Recover the amino acids of this structure.
């Protein structure tokens, strides 16, 4: 195990250790100078976060680093995406590695020396880390005799759930045989990689319900059709879909996050608007929930003589790891951190991830990089105080390198090439 010398780091970045040496196989890790460099890049990106579809400076930073490395790339893909290609044997499909680049509309309260300088915008989900990890992998893979081509995807707008479809439409998966990605995770200590079979993220559908009753005087409810009462009954009824219609072994959520009605304390509201989210890890549960939300809303409205409008909008599908891609992800993880540090997810994750769209086209796998900050309270992703242990950068970049080689050898063998 090793630690980056603080002397190798510009004084501007001192104040926090850059790498604490948690990998068990130093021969597989990226070199110390690369670790220091991607840490500086992460902090620069953290200081200058950009929202979905507005990642222009971020794109410039990525492209400048690829220019320095001598890696060929395309910029402005789907707006602010970057695609780089590392050559391999002709006729062998590529292994794609993906990182997301966008930040969130959150005002940072971490107190970090490199905290956001953009008011109301923050890297509160670790995408600055993912972007830097992939740059580290690019540095380690560049110039190597690869068993298969490697495609590097820096994707915008993951937080909107639309960046992946935009890259796919732009041809990001053309000629790709496998795709891999990951996310920093505060539930696991540095040096742990969570690799799970089955669902690792939930679907993220949304709904909007408008109840149209009849407004009237608060003293004469019999002359009205109260949208507040009807909307309240809908909230209660929607909650019972999961509690009474879904197998408890299948994690699922129906949440009403917004309920708006009325404008005066003595007026019965004739309209109510409800908005919420539907989460499921199993495709059949997802289909059941989306149909039942509409059915329940219409039934409650009919019962009370109100009209109702229901719109269910499809979001991201669940992310499901399976098959050879999962085997390659796990094998690479074991090579980087050792078998004892490769673990399954400890709880069901109901968050969404548009990486799922890639898996509709090519096989792949999605993992978690342990990034809990030792000795400090751990704040959740999307929190104004979110941070992660930067030793995850070296581990994540090394896993990307290893999974590209591991999956690449399988693709080369399937194509009749002698694996390198």
């Amino acid at each position: 195990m090793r630690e980056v010398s603080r002397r190798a780091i510009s004084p501007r970045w001192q104040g926090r250790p850059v790498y604490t040496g948690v990998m068990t196989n130093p021969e597989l890790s990226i070199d110390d100078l690369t670790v220091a460099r991607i840490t500086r890049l992460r902090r620069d990106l953290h200081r200058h976060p950009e929202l979905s579809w507005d990642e222009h400076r971020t794109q410039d930073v990525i492209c400048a680093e690829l220019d320095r490395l001598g890696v060929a790339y395309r910029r402005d893909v789907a707006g602010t995406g970057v695609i780089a290609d590392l050559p391999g044997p002709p006729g062998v499909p590529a292994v794609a590695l993906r990182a997301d680049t966008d930040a969130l509309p959150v005002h940072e309260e971490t107190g970090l020396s490199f905290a956001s300088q953009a008011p109301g915008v923050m890297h509160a989900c670790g995408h600055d880390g993912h972007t830097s990890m992939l740059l580290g992998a690019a540095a380690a893979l560049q110039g190597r005799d690869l068993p298969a081509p490697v495609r590097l995807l820096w994707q915008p707008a993951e937080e909107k759930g639309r960046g992946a479809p935009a890259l796919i439409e732009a041809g990001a998966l053309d000629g790709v045989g496998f795709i891999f990605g990951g996310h920093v995770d505060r539930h696991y200590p540095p040096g742990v990689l969570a690799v799970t079979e089955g669902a690792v993220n939930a679907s993220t559908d949304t709904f909007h319900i408008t109840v149209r009753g009849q407004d009237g005087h608060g003293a004469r409810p019999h002359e009205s059709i109260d949208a507040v009462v009807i909307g309240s009954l809908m909230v209660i009824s929607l909650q019972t879909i999961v509690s009474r219609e879904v197998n408890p072994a299948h994690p699922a959520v129906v949440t009403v996050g917004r309920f708006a009605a009325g404008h005066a304390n003595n007026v019965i509201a004739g309209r109510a608007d409800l908005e919420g989210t539907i989460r499921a890890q199993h495709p059949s549960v997802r289909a059941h929930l989306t149909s039942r939300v509409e059915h329940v809303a219409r039934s409650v409205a009919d019962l009370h003589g109100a009209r109702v409008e229901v719109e269910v909008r499809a979001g991201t599908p669940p992310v499901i790891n399976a098959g050879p891609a999962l085997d390659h992800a796990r094998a690479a993880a074991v090579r980087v951190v050792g078998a004892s540090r490769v673990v399954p997810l400890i709880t069901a994750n109901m968050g969404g991830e548009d990486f799922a769209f890639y898996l509709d086209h090519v096989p792949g796998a999605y993992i978690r990089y342990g990034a809990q900050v030792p000795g400090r309270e751990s704040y959740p992703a999307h929190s104004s105080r979110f941070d992660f242990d930067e030793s995850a950068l070296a581990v994540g970049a090394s896993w990307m390198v290893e999974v590209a080689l591991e999956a690449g050898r399988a693709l080369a063998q399937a194509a009749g090439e002698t694996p390198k």
Q: What stands out?
A: The longest helix spans residues 391-414. Residues 173 and 362 are 8 Å apart (CA to CA).
